[in-house]
Amino acid sequence: MKKYNFNAGPSMLPHGVVEATAAAVLDYNGMGLSFMELSHRSPEFKLVLDEARSLIKELLDVPGGYEVLLLGGGASMHFCMVPYNFLVRKAAYLNTGVWASKAMKEATLFGEVVEVASSADKNFSYIPKNFDIPADADYLHVTSNNTVYGTQLHADIDSPVPLVADMSSDIFSRPVDVSKYACIYGGAQKNLAQSGLSFVIVKESALGMTGRAIPSILDYKVHAEAGSLFNTPPTLPVYTALRNLRWIKEQGGVAEMERRARLRADVLYSEIDRNPMFRATVEGDDRSFMNIDFVMASGYEELEQTFAEYAAERGLVAIKGHRIAGGFRASCYNAMPHEGVEALAECMKDFSKR
Amino acid sequence: MKKYNFNAGPSMLPHGVVEATAAAVLDYNGMGLSFMELSHRSPEFKLVLDEARSLIKELLDVPGGYEVLLLGGGASMHFCMVPYNFLVRKAAYLNTGVWASKAMKEATLFGEVVEVASSADKNFSYIPKNFDIPADADYLHVTSNNTVYGTQLHADIDSPVPLVADMSSDIFSRPVDVSKYACIYGGAQKNLAQSGLSFVIVKESALGMTGRAIPSILDYKVHAEAGSLFNTPPTLPVYTALRNLRWIKEQGGVAEMERRARLRADVLYSEIDRNPMFRATVEGDDRSFMNIDFVMASGYEELEQTFAEYAAERGLVAIKGHRIAGGFRASCYNAMPHEGVEALAECMKDFSKR
Fold first, then answer.
1. What digits encode the pLDDT tens for the residues A134-187?
2. What is the distance in angstroms between the Cα of B10 and the nearest Cα belonging to chain A?
3. A25 interfaces chain B, CB cutoff of 8 Å
4. Of the four listed, A146, A251, B122, B342, which is most buried by Cβ atoms within 10 Å?
5. Domain limits at A35?
6. Percentage of residues in chain B with pLDDT exceeding 70?
7. Which of residues 174-193 of A touch B (CB under 8 A)?
């Protein structure tokens, strides 16, 4: 049975990327050695790291004056590194859910934190708009896509203070105007690679400005100066990232990824809106193209477990919602083929006919 | 040509571990999904993580009252986490080389740091003995094996203050009396797994004692309470670790690993001591069984590059010394077969006959 993997992350990767990673694990380029056994100082690894960083710059059209880092750890590490590196006195955070809240919590250890707006009043089912940003904030932090609640900022916002974004779950899913950001970061395990790796795109002029003594491993400047080789990076995840970045480029780049994401989201939200048995938890323009959240409609709540099992029997993996949000979540990152969402929509149709 | 990989880390892994990792990347247990695509909250991953942590306890005979953590990042992360979690006022560090110095440098951000002894006077070619440990130090930090200079602490020392050890490069190579330590940590990329992962064995009663506000991601207590799932761990490296831990157990455990390491080291040091063309950089009991450092003997210095090429032509990979120490370094971790060191000793013999 053909399976479609809707995991929220670690999540589906293009099959060619999976195969290339497996091949590199067995024997890298006919060297008679596993990629896992190569030194991070070897010329072979250096080529992989350099091409990966350079493809990130190319795919996102990163302007001059920015550094691209590939580091160990995930977004939770950067929840701590961002204030360590950028917070002098006051930081502004937009609270759009679990991950935004976690990021905000870490910042409170480093200075004053202002919550500019929150959608907690409606269970984070929308992205707040028209909020005031303190002009004296060192930065404004946003979470571009909220995996748990299924909301997404579909455009790069204008900010009077330096903008920092956690793009863990929608990086490489659309063109980004990097020039609007001081720092973009995220974990790799959705649209970039396997888990254990994180990416950072940081404005060079924003580094080294706090006057704070920063532990080396947490200092973006240290990593930038060392070309992402200050310490041993997660070497195999970097290789998976390279193969995935090449795949995105071959497929037509991030504009094509966005076109596909919109089509996939359209198929699913249309069926959810049409089908009386289901209800989307997010309305309108804030709906995420990456994580499509829905619940059983009023009157059908007791069928939740039945539908979950029905979908699983058809090879639709991991559509159960996050343990906090409940209901269902179809995570549709770049690697999800259009047939995957068609299969899920068909499954919802068939279920309601039963 | 059969190759022997003497890389210092990331380094050689048992071939079965490499094959098992590649198979899991392609399709994990016939699920039709790559291990890289599984959620870290899935029952499949949970089983892998639990078995890996439990094998670490079993292999090292970890007493009750200790937590075993498998986290992202490497030893450099713990150079920062150790003082964050344990340094209140004063810490003592034994300076045995590059990694010890780096660990010590990070600690200076958190309190007073006392260097109890240093072997810098003789280019770190020995382990200092009979040093005084301040009775009021929060901990004494040692580096059990020094990959760059090729020295090793072959026994667990007695310390009047809590003992913390970086065992990145010799963990699982000998039995350890864990009860003597408050914390043992290290990067995984030598004797445990591929890069991107680190391990921590920490005494529960030593946690949460500083009164300092610690960022969540750097707080051992947070990771312990979350069972190493506070954030997304590097899932595939954890799987590689599990397969390698199973391999160590099947081979006879850490006592057998030590027996083999001593035999391998004996073959190489004997040839280095016998062969007039070569000279060991470390003498006596402090010689590392993991990283065997040597140089061309006096009068033969100009043959260094020639020997490096001669060895490479015979399939002996990466015997060049660390860029700081120069000369040669044969890293012989658990996965190095005895034939590997015999091939290198033979190569030295043949070279000197030419």
1. 999 999 999 999 999 999 999 999 999 999 999 999 999 999 999 999 999 999
2. 5
3. yes
4. A146
5. 15-251
6. 100
7. 187, 189
Contact A13, A197 (CB under 8 A): no
The Cα angle at residue B22 between residues A315 and B231, in degrees rounded to 5? 70
Q: Is A99 an active-site residue? A: yes
Asked whether residue A10 is assigned to any structural domain, the reply reads no
> Residue B149: what pLDDT?
96
Domain with residue B123: its CATH number is 3.40.640.10
Is it the case that residue B106 has pLDDT exceeding 90?
A: yes
Look at residues B218, B251, B284 and tell me which one is the last residue of a structural domain: B251
d(CA B327, CA B344) in angstroms, rounded, equals: 15
Nearest residue of A to residue B9, measured between CA atoms:
A39
Q: Which chain A residue is nearest to residue B39, measuring alpha carbons?
A: A10
Question: CB contact, 8 Å: B312 with chain A?
Answer: no
**Tokens at B182, concatenated:** 């408050």
Same domain, B91 and B138: yes
The stretch A41-57 carries a mean pLDDT of 98
Alpha-carbon span B41 to A349, nearest angstrom: 29
Q: Which two tokens stand for residue B259?
A: 């027996």
**Strand, coil or helix: A69:** strand
Contact with chain B for residue A43, Cβ under 8 A: no
- Answer yes or no: do B59 and B187 share one domain: yes
**pLDDT on residue A328:** 97
Handedness of CA A314, A317, A322, A323 (dihedral sign): positive
**Contacting residues of B for A230, CB less than 8 Å apart:** 76
Question: Are B196 and A106 a contacting pair at CB < 8 A?
Answer: no
Nearest to A25 among B10, B25, B196 (CB): B25
Report how far residue A208's alpha carbon sits from residue B245's, in angstroms, rounded to the nearest whole number: 42
Q: Are A236 and A26 in contact (CB under 8 A)?
A: no
Other beta carbons within 10 Å of B326? 13
Q: Is the pTM of this model over 0.95?
A: yes
Provide the 3-class DSSP secondary structure of residue A174: coil
ipTM above 0.95, yes or no: yes
Does B12 reach chain A within 8 Å, measured CB to CB? Answer: yes
Identify which of B25, B102, B317 has the shortest CB distance to residue A21.
B25
From the CB of residue A343, how many other CB atoms can be counted at a distance below 10 Å?
17
Q: Where are the beta strands (DSSP E) in A256-310?
A: 278-280, 291-296
Question: Could you tell me the pLDDT band of residue A7, with boundaries at 50, 70 and 90?
Answer: very high
Nearest CA in chain A to B22: A22
